[in-house]
Amino acid sequence: MIGEYKQQNLLGGSNLKVFISCDIEGISGVVASQEQTSEEGKDYGRARELMTDELNAVIEGAVQAGAKDILVNDSHGSMRNILIEKMHPAATLLTGSPKRLSMMQGIGPEFNACIFVGYHSRMGSPGVLSHTISGGSVANIWANDILVGETGINAGIAGFYGVPVVLVCGDNVVAQEAKQLLPKVHTAVVKEAVGRYAAKCLPPQKVKNLLVQSAKDALADISEATIWLPESPVTFKIEFKDSGLAEAASRMPYTEVLEPRTVSFTADDYITAFMGLRSMIALSRG
Fold first, then answer.
1. Which of 10, 112, 115, 148 is the most buried (most CB within 10 A)?
2. Could you confirm whether 131 is annotated as catalytic?
3. Closest CA to 121 of 60, 51, 171
4. Active-site annotation holder among 76, 88, 120, 131
């Protein structure tokens, strides 16, 4: 049911409930992996502050659009990055890991809209810090033969619950990726990729203004929003970086080895298929 329209979710005003998934690689000023996105990195603390500031701008835009109930899921690494003491008081934070739905923990049919903040493009693309779930093991992922990154994978989880993704914030490459999959989605480009580890970045004040307005605009256009959900049965196919990773992943029951580096898992519904996807990736590393 790709692009299916779900009227009951398109409420507004005092009923508006917004779910936000916040990653770090798509934040303006973040261009280095170990130094900025790892807890041991020398610039990690600074990156956390930039991440929290961008999140706060989106929350503020949602509040101005009428949102009364906002849940934020910290979606990077250990999922303990957002500085709660500096977070906008209008939102609630879901932090820590592991989480059953990972970057989308907390999403449900009660939400009217979903926003992605600090998102990056899929592995193999020329975006800043591009990867798909695991930069060390995953080369490509397909959902029902549609090449997807984290934007697509997580949009499918939102779609399973009837929730449209209305705004994706990050670099210009993830914005293009989002538009290709979700034609009516709004995007906010906070940096332009020069390479995988370099970008032309907007300064924080410009980013704040952009994100506040983008969130307001996206939620104002919620009546135009569509959900994205691949038809059942759902097959996730993973191409790993080497055959050993695929061999380890194939230990999971009901997987199919398609090629030396490629395995797949099929389920009747999207969430079960997603669980299989995450399990295969976890097994590949151990």
1. 115
2. yes
3. 171
4. 131
